[in-house]
Amino acid sequence: MRGFAQGGSFVGINIGTDMSNFPSASDIVSILKAQGIRHVRLFDADHQLLNALANTGIEVIVGVPNDQILRIGLSRSEAADWVKNNIASFVPATNITYISVGSEVLTSIPNAALVLVPALQYLQSALVATNLNFQVKVSTPHSMTLIPRPFPPSTAAFNSTWNSIMLQLLQFLKNTGSSFMLNAQPYYGYTQGNGIFPLDYALFRSLTPNKQIVDPNTLSPYSNMFDAMIDATYYSMQALNVSGIPILVTETGWPWLGGASEPDATVDNALVYNTNLVQHVLSGAGTPGQRNITVSAYIYELFNEDLRSGLISEKNWGLFFSNGTAVYSVNLGNSKLTEANSSVSPGVFCVANSNADSKALKAGLDWACGLGSANCSAIQPGQPCYESDSIAGIASYAYNDYYHRTQATGGTCNFGNTAIITNADPSHGSCIFAGSLGTNTSSGITSAAFGPISPGNGVPGLQISWTKFFVLALFHLMF
């Protein structure tokens, strides 16, 4: 992939289509352009989208769906027709750089395993015949479940059931200069790990000294699960005496919403994971086992896919809703998602837990309006969001304003465990919360969602002592 080999590490995005209101191809490309996204992965050869991507310069991975692998893997002519219809017909206008054959074939549809490598070979032959093999590479994405024991990375190995096929595949990748495609999902590594690893390890957060994760064989410390997954894959290739094949992470991300049994699928965790992922990948730091090799990654995914089966979290990995509004804001290294909305997440709110202790709520409120720099003008006495009989109501406004201002840079909804995330809009009357879809402003949010209010931005004389204010305004609420 040209962006991978020459341009250094990058972060791209997956575009799934399993949704009831799939945006038009032109709308999708508009979002990509607005957010500075330069690398996308499609799960199939969507001709409308491939046409819309023409002359944009955006690098595209085009997928062969699992249900087409058997046909292509059994027939050179079918493979040639597929390349002709779905690749040759669109390049060079559309910058197609990879064909990804299937998705996690060995672990999801093992009956197709015997035709996987032939499918790659036939597609490669078709590319050679059309003189496209130097622009377009061929590979296939794998699940981490292909490695039964990924930790410690130094002893990791592929499931021996697939050794013969893996050797053929790795030799193909090496001969063609292609990458090993890996779906690395620390969310599953954490949630299915039975508490072995801390959440901070999965989210790229700093670990305390007593929670350091170290490979006992190499003594290499691992600060995050993503790197450990990458190294486990490199070591698995080495166990088959193969090296020199770069890894391209084709899927990684975090769901922002889950059911009652999925407490870790939250907006906060999704924001933290993807924000830290981007910073980590673009730093070009490599991994403990491969310091000099950078890894690029595709975030899963652009849109929520409400038609996907399974748990609630399976439907909610997207950065955007189908109407084009952002679930939360992430900087992909080119521009900030939802920049026009000042990092507000429409329909998502951070509010005070009504069961929290009133003194703890006041402490959180003081911090949000003080050091947190939330815009608390609307909760002054006489203003639309002031509630003389509810410290939770006042705190909710301040918490939410702080959260919507800072989530793009790591701000969270916690406040000493007195806050929760909700999709229920707490706006009432003329009191409009940041993120509300019911506001009458053109952007769908109130001015309270933007930068800190000060005398210099059109609200003169608003600098006050929040401590004095809350002592007076909330005295009767607490005593």
Describe this structure in words.
The protein is α/β, with parallel strands linked by helices and 479 residues long. The protein folds into 2 domains: 2-341, Glycosidases (TIM Barrel), CATH 3.20.20.80; 349-478, no CATH class. It is built from 16 helices and 13 strands. It has helices at 2-5, 25-34, 47-52, 69-73, 76-88, 105-108, 113-129, 163-176, 186-191, 199-202, 225-239, 267-283, 358-369, 391-406, 466-473, 475-478, and strands at residues 11-15, 39-42, 59-64, 96-101, 137-139, 141-143, 180-183, 213-214, 221-222, 247-252, 296-299, 349-352, 419-422. The strands form 3 sheets. A 9-stranded parallel beta sheet has the order 5-4-3-2-1-11-10-7-6. The protein has a two-stranded antiparallel sheet with strand order 8-9. Strands 12-13 form a two-stranded antiparallel ribbon. Helix 5 (76-88) packs across helix 7, helix 7 (113-129) packs parallel to helix 8 and helix 13 (358-369) packs parallel to helix 14. The longest helix has 17 residues, at 113-129. The model is unreliable at 1-7, 335-344 and 439-479 (pLDDT under 50).
Task: Please describe the topology of this protein.
Blueprint: H1 2-5, E1 11-15, H2 25-34, E2 39-42, H3 47-52, E3 59-64, H4 69-73, H5 76-88, E4 96-101, H6 105-108, H7 113-129, E5 137-139, E6 141-143, H8 163-176, E7 180-183, H9 186-191, H10 199-202, E8 213-214, E9 221-222, H11 225-239, E10 247-252, H12 267-283, E11 296-299, E12 349-352, H13 358-369, H14 391-406, E13 419-422, H15 466-473, H16 475-478
Parallel strand pairs: 1-2, 1-11, 2-3, 3-4, 4-5, 6-7, 7-10, 10-11
Antiparallel strand pairs: 8-9, 12-13
Helix pairs in contact: 5-7, 7-8, 13-14
